[in-house]
Write a structure and sequence with these properties.
Helices cover 51% and strands 8% of the residues. It is an alpha+beta fold and 742 residues long. This is Engulfment and cell motility protein 1 isoform X1.
Length: 742
């Protein structure tokens, strides 16, 4: 007979005593259980004690989280959070440097626990830490030379404890003084400082900016690009990551009016506050430093750095949103002059005719003819072509950039098309507008960065005007594809679809430079795209005949079983998941894997991202597969229903899934990417005996079925397979041909 569901068997430790095996009744109050444990060891004042996990997390057991205790868990009897908080509050104010250092070290460790954090904060512990940072550092300044290691460790533990306490979201970021901000900023501005202090200081500045508009303004006044650049030029990738995260945070929170400083601004970018340089990401020096010291450094880029570079890329392109959503004013002479400039460059117009009525008519006629050659839809007033948003004025900006910076290619395209028949000309104006719109969709201009995406493109960091250069390459590709397709005006949408496919296929190879992107496109001519499409289409058509469909139906269960085994094997290997936090981006990991017998899920927190598999015995928590009630995804997940920034993020929503077990318990996941999401949801559904419904399963099934059928049909090459099976022959009139071998 199985034990009652409310009874949990655990081991409880106490320093200096043998561990005690005990059955905990989850229906009893936690205080009664602690009293029972204390009585067993003859300890008085049970209210001064508490239970905590004996693993590396050391988290306290409370009424809220007690349901997470599983059979076989090792607990520890320890001082209660309130008592611990009082003791540490006193110890960190000790006059002894050694005692203070040890207390701060303990505080940094314990502050990760929300129960302890609440008690320490109730004692005004945050204010004490900020005072120590503001005045305590100066107080020990004289000791710094003779006790530098001790001083550095003390400050590091203080900042670590502060970051961990604030991470719980109990205290508002708006409560901090200018003096504290200046002190934290001074640690960042110092040329030589302990790495751990620099890391914590950058993390604090990032959180301040992201969580408080007032603090954003104060931080922006203290930190300049010139002070951050040395950290990017170092060799520590973690420091570089935190530095870019601060730049991203300042950029993300910059007011709209601060984001439109001209790229050609003559202001010295090293001394400008970031609030006044919101498009600083487009500036050459910062871009080239990131390219040289981060992207092209002789080391692999880790996931967090890749994410920050992706955010940087998104914020850079989002600077284009204002122009993308700005309609052209047909009455604005400055805007009309851009169109005149496009015409002048293309046709090298002579000086303006005299203002007689005859010459005016002649000039209008000439302009109309030239605007038609330029490929505008509205030949009389081409300004009307730019009233649709998106792409708005961004399309006109791109056309002007192409005309000025790639003048020969621009003139060649315009004149080449103006000499063709009307129906065969590739309209440069219309093409540029639609292409700009398409590129904005591909790069998701105007959308906020995802919390989980790492998809940055190195080539966009190789040029000061990367989007414009991207457009210039693609408009020439469009013209080339138009000629290869021998397209007419009726084929315009077909050409755009082919160009989009060419661009998307080239981008998936992650070219390291714009030149490499251009060469990738050269290999993706219209003929090559046709071959790819034909191959894909033939693969589909070949398998639509009745005999092939019957064969597919026969071998499909075998392939599905193969996919199921692959999914379960991947779950046995396990995956490292990141704990996402809407207040600050700092890597906190946990790992989950399936036992080899497919009966138990092992999981637990990790201090850092693992290299390879994590052994089962290092994962303290267990969840029997038999206890799993259901697997839910997306908006049905409990952690996606909670209020917070993650709820609003579509991409995070698409990567979320939860395991529901017991009555009200759940294990919440956010997959690192779509592939891992499909692997885990498929594997969990397979464990529960349900169908695997992910896109990955469908793709794998199609691929493996195709390969298996091709292998089985190898001997039938060049033999026509009939749609219907051959008829069964009639029975012979006699069986004289049958001989009895006996």
């Amino acid at each position: 007979m199985p034990p009652p569901a409310d009874i949990v068997k655990v081991a409880i430790e106490w320093p200096g005593a043998y561990p005690k095996l005990m059955e905990i009744d989850q229906k009893k109050p936690l205080s009664a259980i602690i009293k029972e444990v204390c009585d067993g060891w003859s300890l008085a004042n049970h209210e001064y004690f508490a239970l905590q996990h004996a693993d590396s997390s050391n988290f306290y057991i409370t009424e809220k989280n007690r349901n997470e205790i599983k059979n076989g868990t090792i607990l520890r009897l320890t001082t209660s959070p309130a008592q611990n908080a009082h003791q540490l509050h006193e110890r960190i104010q000790s006059s002894s440097m050694d005692a203070k250092l040890e207390a701060l070290k303990d505080l940094a460790s314990l502050s990760r626990d929300v129960t302890f954090a609440q008690e320490f904060i109730n004692l005004d512990g945050i204010s004490l830490l900020t005072q120590m940072v503001e005045s305590g550092t100066e107080r020990y300044q004289k000791l710094q030379k003779i006790m530098k290691p001790c001083f550095g460790d003390m400050l590091s533990f203080t900042l670590t404890a502060f970051v961990e306490l604030m991470d719980h979201g109990i205290v508002s970021w708006d409560t901090f003084s200018v003096a504290f901000i200046k002190k934290i900023a001074s640690f960042v501005n110092k040329s030589a400082i302990d790495v751990s202090i620099l890391q914590r200081s950058l993390a604090i500045l990032e959180s301040m900016v992201l969580n408080s508009h007032d603090l954003y303004q104060k931080v922006a006044q203290e930190i300049t690009i010139g002070q951050l650049i040395p950290h990017l030029q170092g060799t520590d990738q973690e420091i570089q990551t935190y530095t870019i995260a601060v730049i991203n945070a300042l950029f993300l929170k910059a007011p709209d009016e601060k984001r439109q400083v001209g790229v050609e601004s003559s202001v010295d970018i090293l001394d400008c506050p970031l609030t006044e340089m919101a498009n600083i990401l487009a500036q050459k020096q910062l871009r080239s430093i990131i390219l040289t010291h981060v992207i092209r450094a002789q080391r692999a880029i880790n996931n967090e750095m890749a994410h920050q570079l992706y955010v940087l890329q998104v914020l850079t392109f989002n600077l284009l949103e204002d122009r993308m959503m700005t309609k052209m004013d047909p009455q604005d002479q400055a805007q009309r002059d851009i169109i005149f400039e496009l015409r002048r460059i293309a046709f090298d117009a002579e000086s303006e005719p005299n203002n007689s009525s005859g010459s005016m008519e002649k000039r209008k006629s000439m302009y109309t003819r030239d605007y038609k050659k330029l490929g505008f839809i509205n030949h009389v007033n081409p300004a009307m072509d730019f009233t649709q948003t998106p792409p708005g004025m961004l399309a006109l900006d791109n056309m002007l950039y192409f005309a000025k910076h790639h003048q020969d290619a621009y003139i060649r395209i315009v004149l080449e098309n103006s000499s063709r028949e009307d129906k065969h000309e590739c309209p440069f104006g219309r093409s540029s507008i639609e292409l700009t719109k398409m590129l904005c969709e591909i790069l998701k201009v105007g959308e906020l960065p995802s919390e989980t995406c790492n998809d940055f493109h190195p080539m966009f960091f190789t040029h000061d005007r990367s989007f414009e250069e991207f457009f210039c390459i693609c408009i020439q590709l469009l013209n080339k594809t138009w000629k290869e397709m021998r397209a007419t005006s009726e084929d315009f949408n077909k050409v755009m679809q082919v160009v989009k496919e060419q661009v998307m296929r080239a981008l998936t190879t992650k070219p390291s430079s714009l030149d490499q992107f251009k060469s990738k496109l050269q290999n993706l001519s219209y003929t090559e795209i046709l071959k790819i499409r034909q191959s894909e289409r033939m693969n589909q058509e070949d398998f639509q005949s009745r005999p092939i469909l019957e064969l597919k139906e026969k071998i499909q269960p075998e392939i599905l079983e193969l996919i199921k085994q692959q999914r379960l094997n991947r779950l046995v290997e396990g995956t490292c998941f990141r704990k996402l936090n809407c207040r600050r981006r700092q890597d906190k990991f946990w790992y989950c894997r399936l036992s080899p017998n497919h009966k138990v899920l092992h999981y637990g927190d990790l201090e850092e991202s693992p290299q390879g598999e994590v052994p089962h015995d290092s994962l303290q928590d267990k969840l029997p597969v038999a206890d799993i009630k259901a697997v839910v995804t997306g908006k049905d997940c409990p952690h996606m229903k909670e209020k917070g920034a993650l709820k609003q993020n579509k991409e995070v929503l698409e990567l979320a899934f939860s395991i529901l077990y017991d009555s009200n318990c759940q294990l919440n996941f956010i997959a690192p990417d779509k592939h891992e999401y499909c692997i885990w949801t498929d594997g969990l559904n397979a464990l529960l005996g349900k169908d695997m419904m992910s896109d990955l399963t469908r793709n794998d099934l199609d691929t493996l079925l195709s390969m298996e059928i091709k292998l089985r049909l190898l001997d039938l090459e060049n033999i026509q397979i009939p749609d219907a099976p051959p008829p069964i022959p009639k029975e012979p009139s006699n069986y004289d041909f049958v001989y009895d071998c006996n």
